[in-house]
């Protein structure tokens, strides 16, 4: 019987220490883990698997007892109880091994360019706000200590050191001396070249994740300061979700929630992207607005969104780079009939945002010129201190061609 017990413990350990990660090593309905794919094996979850008869599997162990002859001992594990308890113990003893995080994007409610810097960059003053459209990123500890491995659900995303996720992980290791490497899967929802800060958010999310795996060696403030080495927009995502940003964008001041979180919006992005470098090449400081950005911030905080306060000094040069973007904004304004509180371009483009309604204007459905535009509803989003952003609901994103055929994709 001692042999039976020993075999039982060995088999339990084999199941519970499988590197499927997460708060439960075995997750009901989970898809193939990186390990099963790497090994060419099929996915197997002992809590949900069934035998050919439709029953959940039992584990049968043959044991020999020298005093009474050969006996057969059947030990049946309840997959919903026994393995869950074992999984809890593994998590306690082994620490975090897998983490899935939401990586939201942002819009610039207003964006003033206030001057040219000696380092060649421009000073800006902007109300940044996180919104509910975002990517999902899964991080799993790599069994090796040599390299991160990144995959993505869409083509064209760089998977090497050019990706800000990898840059962020390299930066964290440099700053802390940790040696954790990761397998990362990026489920990309935010379009690139959209002025929504999707890549910057990915970098901030990767820094946050690396810190969680390392037992939070760094404070949020340190993560925010380090992140400015990756890009000007990255520090913003370590705010509480709404911030007045100055300098190159890296000087971040949290502000009390300026707008209702349930205020809806629609994002419309044509296939063409605006190169930020091209936009700034055409930018002329003498043609910007003269309104004090602090006045804009005060007006929004006190009275909410209106067309007059949603100023973006990068719109004129962006419209020169992409004239079709100017036409799109004009058509949205003309078609809104008061449905939107404001229509604006985010960042350096090429996303047009209508705030006040989640519905796109009808011409986006009907006009062949816009059959391939990206469309998504969204709302404003914030986070609590020491917690990362959580997707409040699943926004729907689609092309206008999808809308015409009744096909949409709800992100989950």
Low-confidence stretches: 1-64, 70-77, 402-412
Q: How is the CATH topology of the largest domain named?
A: Ribosomal Protein S5, domain 2
Shape assignment: globular
Helix content: 25-40%
CATH class type of the largest domain: Alpha Beta
Percent range for β-strand residues: 15-25%
SSE arrangement, N to C: HHEEHEEEHEHHEEEHHHHEEHEEHE
Which CATH architecture of the largest domain would you pick?
Answer: 2-Layer Sandwich
User: What count of structural domains?
Assistant: 2
Task: Report the span from N to C terminus.
Answer: 49 Å
β-strand number: 14
Which structural class best describes the helix and strand composition?
A: alpha+beta
Largest sheet: 6 strands, mixed
Q: Helical stretch count?
A: 12
Cα radius of gyration in angstroms: 26 Å
Q: Quick check: average pLDDT?
A: 81
Question: Any overview of this molecule?
Answer:
This protein folds into 2 domains: 93 residues, no CATH class; 313 residues, Ribosomal Protein S5, domain 2. The chain is 29% helix and 24% strand. It has 12 helices and 14 strands. The strands form 3 sheets. Strands 3, 4, 5, 6, 7 and 8 form a 6-stranded mixed β-sheet that branches. Helix 4 links the parallel strand 5 and strand 6. The longest helix is centred in the middle third of the chain and has 16 residues. The N terminus and C terminus are likely disordered. It is found in: Plastid, Chloroplast. Keywords: ATP-binding, Chloroplast, Isoprene biosynthesis, Kinase, Nucleotide-binding, Plastid, Transferase, Transit peptide. Its main location: plastid.
């Amino acid at each position: 019987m001692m042999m039976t017990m020993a075999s039982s413990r060995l088999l339990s350990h084999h199941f519970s220490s499988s590197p499927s990660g997460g708060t439960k090593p075995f997750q009901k309905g989970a898809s193939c883990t990186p390990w099963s794919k790497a090994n060419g094996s099929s996915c197997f979850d002992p809590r949900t698997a069934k035998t050919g008869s439709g029953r959940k599997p039992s584990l049968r162990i043959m044991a020999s007892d020298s005093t009474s002859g050969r006996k057969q001992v059947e030990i049946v594990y309840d997959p919903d109880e026994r393995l869950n308890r074992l999984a809890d113990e593994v998590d306690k003893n082994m620490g975090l091994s897998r983490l899935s995080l939401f990586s939201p994007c942002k819009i610039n409610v207003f964006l003033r360019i206030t001057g040219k810097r000696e380092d060649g960059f421009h000073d800006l003053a902007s109300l940044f706000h996180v919104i509910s459209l975002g990517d999902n990123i899964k991080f799993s500890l790599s069994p090796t200590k040599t390299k991160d491995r990144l995959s993505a659900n869409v083509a064209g995303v760089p998977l090497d050191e050019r990706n800000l996720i990898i840059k962020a992980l390299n930066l964290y290791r440099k700053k802390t001396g940790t040696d954790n490497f990761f397998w990362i899967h990026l489920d990309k929802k935010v379009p690139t070249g959209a002025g929504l800060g999707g890549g910057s958010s990915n970098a901030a999310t990767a820094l946050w994740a690396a810190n969680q795996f390392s037992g939070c060696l760094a404070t949020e403030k340190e993560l925010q300061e380090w992140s400015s080495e990756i890009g000007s927009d990255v520090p913003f995502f370590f705010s509480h979700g709404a911030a007045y940003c100055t300098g190159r964008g890296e000087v971040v001041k949290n502000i009390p929630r300026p707008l209702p979180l349930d205020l809806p919006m629609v994002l419309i992005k044509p296939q063409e992207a605006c190169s930020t470098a091209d936009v700034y090449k055409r930018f002329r400081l003498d043609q910007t607005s003269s309104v004090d950005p602090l006045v804009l911030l005060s007006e929004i905080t006190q009275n909410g969104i209106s067309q007059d306060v949603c100023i973006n000094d990068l719109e004129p040069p962006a419209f020169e780079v992409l004239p079709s973007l100017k036409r799109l904004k004009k058509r949205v304004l003309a078609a809104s009939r008061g449905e939107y509180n404001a229509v604006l371009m985010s960042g350096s483009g090429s996303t047009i945002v209508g705030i006040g309604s989640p519905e796109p204007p009808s011409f986006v459905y009907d006009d062949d010129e816009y059959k391939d535009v990206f469309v998504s509803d969204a709302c404003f989003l914030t986070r609590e201190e020491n917690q990362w952003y959580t997707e409040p609901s699943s926004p729907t994103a689609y092309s206008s061609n999808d809308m015409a055929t009744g096909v949409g994709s709800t992100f989950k």
